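Notes to self after the call with IL:
- keep both proteins in one doc
- input above output, always
- annotate only the second one for now

Protein 1:
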Amino acid sequence: MKRAITLLGVFLIILLARWIAFPNSVSGTTSHESPVQNTTEIPDIESVDNGENAFSLAGEGLRKFIRYSGFRNASAGHLIMIGVGLFFIFLAIKYDYEPLLLVPIGMGIIFGNIPFFQADNLNMQIGIYQEGSVLNYLYFGVLKGVYPPLIFLGIGAMTDFSSLISKPRLMLLGAAAQVGIFLTFLGALALGFHAQEAGAIGIIGGADGPTAIFLSSRLANGVNIIGTAANGDPIYVKNLIGPIAIAAYSYMALVPVIQPPIMRLLTTRKERLIRMKPPRAVSRLEKILFPLIGMLVTTFISPNSLPLLGMLFFGNLLKESGVTKRLADTSRNSLIDIVTIMLGLTVGASTQADRFLTTDSLVIFGLGALSFMVATAGGVIFAKVMNLFLKGDEKINPLIGAAGVSAVPDSARVVQSVGLKEDPTNHLLMHAMAPNVAGVIGSAVAAGILLSFLL
């Protein structure tokens, strides 16, 4: 009760301050012109009394101070987005939902929605979209797709591909899970999005935040010209980087919530109890050759995926070569941590209320959820199809098909958790990691394919 009274008192104080400085704002008649335009002419010092002049200057200074304050420029949208940022931080701290991602993103959302005065002829260099601001410089790494490849370098340096090397056929599950990307691409087209925008939206189904940011920075960045208006003016693609990135990372964090019901719905208890043979031992030579061969094969198939897959396999080679331990340690620790902070903060800050609270954002979140669910179902169903051609102990537990999405290692952990609930002695984690890392490769290849015919 005391907290509620305190909050009410703060609100009344803010309202009173606004009414004193701008009595017309209560009735909604306050002008939003530039403060320079609203400023009354300062009287000549020589023509008025010094005391009167001082009071006039002080009053005008106070009005300017309030006019520029966040209280004066706050809107319902700002408060809603700040609430969203606080909710992300709450989820990360209270329930440990992807804290390394949601804490920077949540803080970034708050950064991006601190209200400040804006006018056409005024650049205070505060917001992320204002040229010259610190956030604008950091956001350059998102717009130009600099951060995602560095994230992939770190992922490669911390990933063990042994399970995939020992059972290469499980790579098909990672490929099958990408069906959600292309189906959502078609759905976005049907809803009226331009092809470039639809391609960027579809990639959410891979549950791979860096890939989603990389693709949207190329296709839905607000810069590309996609047509010409009747009067000859260029038509620009929408800037959807913020909504797409937030949706992708949100669904990555919600993997333990979204995937288990779909997995149980599409499998029988008998299928969930299937035991798989332990993966064979993989030699050091195989581990060294895999990133080299993998990069050549995947980038020859999809050259546009080189920035992502090239860095992924490079990071893995640093890990497996055995002679670049310092570089591998830097890539998977310091470097990826720094880039994650910059990426999360700037992506969160890009969700300014006036750009994020739109119908497009709601549609993107809906399509993203559908895409992620279809991807999960696609992996599980394809595992069941593969079992039609396998016999005996070669059969696959269909649960591991859900790990075909790119949420590493969360999807694999979910598979392990669901499997243990059915049989506490049936450990599926080592098997699920194969389609999980294959999903990372598959989503990057899918991104490259979309880029090849949309850009």
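Protein 2 (the one to annotate):
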Amino acid sequence: MIPQSLRALLDETDGRRECEWADRRVWLAREAWGELAVCLQGAQVLHFLPASEATPAEGSLPYAPTPARAEGSLSTNAPDDARTDLPVSEAMRNAPDAARAPEAMGEEEEALVPGGWLWVTPTPQALPGAIRGGIPLCWPWFADERGADESPDRSGPMHGPARLAQWCLDAVDEHEGGVELHLSPTERLHSQLVPRAVIQANARRLHVELITEHVGETPVKLSGALHSYLAVADSFACRLTGLAGARYLDKLAGFAEREQQGELAVRSGLDRIYHSNAEVVLDDGSRRLRVARQGSDSAVVWHPAEAPPDDTSPAAARRFLCVESANTRLDPVWLVPGAQHLLGTTLSCEADS
């Protein structure tokens, strides 16, 4: 679920290209296996849509390019379950709140277009701020756990500098019927640690790796996260399985330690750090998305409920749930000189796993 302006750029893409969106460079792919959008600020995946969910005509690309739309009509490049021949005004009246045009919502924000496994805010903040949504890279610390913060007063940015930095696309390779991207920061972000990102996408899954190499001389304690914003039909109707019996820290209750009883039904705001490396399945009633994690013994589940951040409206926030692969205070990484650490997350539909 992405803003209409990003959807329009994907509709105009045939193959692969770089262009600008929200004043940032983005890399887009729209091929037979599906779609991928990556922002070069933060090496951040913004959008992933496998061909199996795009329901293209046989032998055609998902969301195949079409001539310009007639004024006053919705895109016919949306998935079948989102297509409509209604005029914009009538179609938006029938759309979910978070997908309506600004004038229909009484809010100054773009329409959110259904489709894809990730969510991006319709009101991204201006540079040098980060875009909320997709899969931001939190590095070399998670939240305000600034173990690797080298600033004199440990006043570095929330979630570290990686998500704010510019990254370079070092290589684009074919990978299992899809694509593999390798990225690295354009400037040094830490005196002893060097990160790089690997993104793999094909018709069945999305896989993201954040790899940290220690090139210094003394051990460093780091944390981090792949802060995945997963698109859902309604955040308060979601269920998570795979965490039963896991201990967790409840950040909304002063980091009180508790144990998960059965599946997690999302009914209100959440900010929990689960001590678990198990796969999690997110069921929003229309899709069962499997979230596997590598190099992580912390699963973070977050939703702001009716008090979302300033760059997101409550209506738009009802369309995401964060399920994150992380290293937190429960499983920090002590990296010694010459060593590497890989933090990964793999998204796939349960039926395909």
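Annotation: Residues 56-107 have pLDDT under 50 and may be disordered. The longest helix spans residues 4-11.
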